[in-house]
Amino acid sequence: MTTRNVGVIGLGAMGVGIAQTLRRNGFNVHVCDVRPGVAEAFAREGGVAGANPAALAAACDTLVSVVVNAAQTEAVLFGEGGAAAAMRPGSTFIMCSTVDPNWSIALEAKLEAAGIHYIDAPISGGAAKAAAGQMTMMTSARPAAYAAAGAVLDGMAGKVYRLGDKAGAGSKVKIINQLLAGVHIAAAAEAMALGLREGVDAAAIYEVITHSAGNSWMFENRMAHVLAGDFTPLSAVDIFVKDLGLVLDTARASKFPLPLAATAHQMFMQASTAGFAKEDDSAVIKIFPGITLPAKKDAP
Question: Which pLDDT tens digit goes with each residue over 228-247?
Answer without folding.
Answer: 999 999 889 999 999 999 99
